[in-house]
């Protein structure tokens, strides 16, 4: 028996032993869960794996994917952004007002992102400069952004009829609609910045041990401000997809996006205590949550039970994070 042949059984034993450990399931909760859901729903519903439904799921997942990526940057530093959904709503209203007052699509899109980033700037200043805890600061800006959106829109949806938004909604390359392609481009860029740049290393360092990071010359203040700006900017991009999907800028906040953006990050294996970064994991987590909701809808499960199912999945994932490798 050759050395290569002898090595194969030992590698197989090592893989088998690893799968028996809870850390393996904790590290791979999102992809394993997604595969299980696809198998179960494809058996229970013949329409689940049709091209039309797959395309619809990917388009529906795009907003959550983008929000989850922004949330991942914040959570990697040990923080949390409770205002992300309200920031998206505020950006959507900014787009609607600008477009309805004669601004073109691109200028309106820029205004939407800038408006969202103003909320991110406030978050960053409160947390990094004012030393307000992230939970309180972002909970406050959640209310501020929600109130502003309602005030400037008079509490009424702003209809938007834009050819560019129509193209964004209906355009596709095969089964991949433009929204999920945009989300994929953002995911690739986020992965590059997180794992291939000094900035990304600094984000992880601040989340892992802020005192040590500062001692090594890293400005924790600048990093914290930056991640909240990134989260807000991505919320502004997500606002464009939201307006495109609904056909109007809605002033009412959708808290489901807030909860699911955090849930996707948890499912993706990012530690809530900070220091452990992942981008692919939260993306898969967002796809998992979308597939779960879609599958339950196809099976005719009442919408009252769907948040319960999502909550149970997230709680299980949160429990598994205790067994992640450090």
Care to describe what's here?
InterPro entries: ABC_transp_permease. One of its GO terms (molecular function) is transmembrane transporter activity. This protein has one domain: ABC transporter involved in vitamin B12 uptake, BtuC (Orthogonal Bundle). Helices cover 75% and strands 2% of the residues. The protein has helices at 3-19, 22-27, 29-44, 51-76, 84-100, 105-129, 134-152, 163-170, 178-195, 198-208, 210-215, 220-246, 255-267, 280-298, 306-320; strands spanning 158-159, 172-173, 176-177, 248-249. Strand 2 (172-173) and strand 3 form a beta hairpin. Helix 5 packs parallel to helix 7 (134-152). It is globular and about 50 Å long.
What are the main properties of this structure?
two-stranded antiparallel ribbon, ABC transporter permease, ABC transporter involved in vitamin B12 uptake, BtuC, membrane, transmembrane helix, 4 strands, single chain, transmembrane, 326 residues, ABC_transp_permease
């Amino acid at each position: 028996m050759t050395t290569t042949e002898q090595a194969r059984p030992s590698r197989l034993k090592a893989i088998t032993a690893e799968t028996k450990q809870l850390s393996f399931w904790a590290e791979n909760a999102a992809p394993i869960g997604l595969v299980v859901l696809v198998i179960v729903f494809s058996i229970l519903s013949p329409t689940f794996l049709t091209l039309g439904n797959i395309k619809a799921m990917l388009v529906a997942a795009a907003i959550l994917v983008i929000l989850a990526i922004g949330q991942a940057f914040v959570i990697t530093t040990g923080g949390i952004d409770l205002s992300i959904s309200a920031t998206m709503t505020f950006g959507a209203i900014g787009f609607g007002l600008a477009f309805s007052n004669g601004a073109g699509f691109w200028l309106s899109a820029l205004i939407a992102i800038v408006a969202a980033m103003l909320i991110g700037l406030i978050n960053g200043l409160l947390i990094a400069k004012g030393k307000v805890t992230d939970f309180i600061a972002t909970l406050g800006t959640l209310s501020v952004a929600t109130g502003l959106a309602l005030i400037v829109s008079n509490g009424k949806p702003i209809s938007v009829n834009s050819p560019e938004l129509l193209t964004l909604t209906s355009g596709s390359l095969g089964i991949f609609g433009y929204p999920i392609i945009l989300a994929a481009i953002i995911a690739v860029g986020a992965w590059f910045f997180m794992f291939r740049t000094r900035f990304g290393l600094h984000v992880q360092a601040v989340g892992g041990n802020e005192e040590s990071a500062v001692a090594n010359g890293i400005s924790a203040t600048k990093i914290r401000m930056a991640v909240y700006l990134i989260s807000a900017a991505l919320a502004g991009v997500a606002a464009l997809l939201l307006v495109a999907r609904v056909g109007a800028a809605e002033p009412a906040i959708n808290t489901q996006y807030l909860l699911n953006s955090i849930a996707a990050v948890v499912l993706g294996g990012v530690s809530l205590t900070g220091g452990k970064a992942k981008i692919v994991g939260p993306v898969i987590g967002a796809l998992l949550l979308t597939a779960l909701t879609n599958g339950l809808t196809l099976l005719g499960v009442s919408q009252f039970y769907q948040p319960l199912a999502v909550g149970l999945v997230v709680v299980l994932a949160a429990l598994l994070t205790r067994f992640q490798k450090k």
